[in-house]
Automatic annotation (TrEMBL):
SMART domains: SPEC. GO terms for molecular function: actin binding. Residues 1-29 are annotated as: Disordered. InterPro entries: Spectrin/alpha-actinin, Spectrin_repeat. It is found in: Cytoplasm, Cytoskeleton. This is Uncharacterized protein. Residues 1-13 have a biased composition (Polar residues). SUPFAM superfamilies: Spectrin repeat. Residues 295-322 form a coiled coil.
């Protein structure tokens, strides 16, 4: 253009000024056209960048919504034992790894948005809002992850507590059955007492276990476990049942003690009645006195007979005292009349 204008000016000097003016006009219009084209190019680029930014935002927002749904979709309320709860926690941890592994797209989105703002993009307010919105959405995802993890851990804690309670209740149930089973009068009381003593030792050993379970439940309540009311009720039930078990142990001990005393009284009474009957037969044997021979020998036997009676007098009195005490202290297990009959038979 410039060469053509110079050539025309040289060929037609009289039109040189006009030619120069036209050249300047054309150059000015061309520069204006180039400027408009550049602006149009920049606008198209800005529109493309904005569209790309919006698509990145939408993709990340949809991913967050889907991940939020997955974090909440665990059905932990339906878990029945600790093994199921542990499996749910493992699944949750896999989701956490997926969230952490997807950090790059979020970082790229942040950098891209900041770059557009630094270049004074015409949609800077929208871009800034979307950056802040995405930050809030991502924080919501992090908060939900922590919330669900805490909930799953509480589910596991509750199911462990529940399992410990069930085991303790089963243990108590077996011991309650023994304590509640009535023993027959002809049972070997010494054997029953030995079993009772063994049970007492077992209960003493179990005491710390019950306390540990109760303390575990108290800790869950302090941690605001989602099931704190059932936990509190279960602690109360467990401790109440434990107290009742120990009371039954004491009652059983008293019953066995009564049975032992009754059996001992019965054996002593049998022995004394047998002794008395034997001595009565000897005392009532008149043939020993009608025969005048061997008087001295018979006198010695009689003295020995009297000595034996005196020797057993303390034993007889002790048996009588034991029987009276059984009646007075109401330790006859409902056999007061039988004890009275034995006492009357001896006296």
């Amino acid at each position: 253009m410039k060469e053509t204008s110079s050539r025309l000016a040289n060929n037609r000097p009289e039109q040189a000024d006009q030619t120069k003016h036209k050249q300047q006009t054309v150059n000015k219009d061309w520069d204006k056209l180039l400027g408009q084209a550049q602006k149009r190019k920049e606008k198209i680029i800005n529109l493309y960048d904005l569209q790309r930014f919006r698509e990145m935002f939408n993709d990340l927002a949809q991913w967050i919504m889907a991940m939020l749904s997955r974090l909440q979709d665990h059905k932990a309320h339906e878990a029945n034992d600790p093994i199921e709860a542990e499996a749910l926690l493992e699944q949750h941890q896999e989701k956490v790894k997926e969230i952490e592994a997807n950090s790059t797209p979020f970082n790229n989105f942040e950098k891209f948005g900041q770059k557009l703002i630094e270049h004074n993009h015409y949609a800077t307010p929208e871009i800034q809002n979307k950056l802040e919105d995405m930050k809030a959405k991502r924080q919501k995802l992090m908060d939900e992850e922590k919330k669900q993890k805490k909930f799953l851990e509480q589910v596991l804690d509750y199911l462990n507590f529940k399992k410990e309670c069930e085991q303790a209740e089963n243990w108590m149930g077996k011991r309650e059955q023994f304590l509640e089973t009535p023993h027959e009068d002809d049972d070997n009381v010494e054997t029953m007492i030995k079993r009772h003593e063994d049970l007492g030792k077992a209960i003493d050993n179990q005491e710390q276990k019950i306390a540990t379970i109760a303390n575990f439940g108290d800790q869950l309540i302090k941690q605001d476990n989602y099931n704190m009311d059932p936990i509190r009720n279960k602690i109360d039930e467990l401790l109440k049942r434990w107290k009742e078990l120990k009371n039954k142990l004491m009652d059983k001990k008293s019953q066995l003690g009564e049975s032992q005393s009754l059996q001992q009284f019965s054996r002593d009474a049998d022995e004394i009645e047998l002794l008395i009957n034997e001595k009565l037969q000897t005392a009532l044997d008149e043939s020993a006195y009608r025969d005048p021979t061997n008087i001295e020998s018979k006198n010695q036997k009689h003295q020995a007979f009297e000595a034996e009676l005196r020797a057993n007098e303390a034993k007889i009195r002790q048996m009588l005292d034991d029987g009276k005490k059984l009646i007075e202290k109401q330790k006859c297990s409902g056999n007061e009349d039988a004890v009275k009959q034995r006492l009357n038979a001896v006296t």
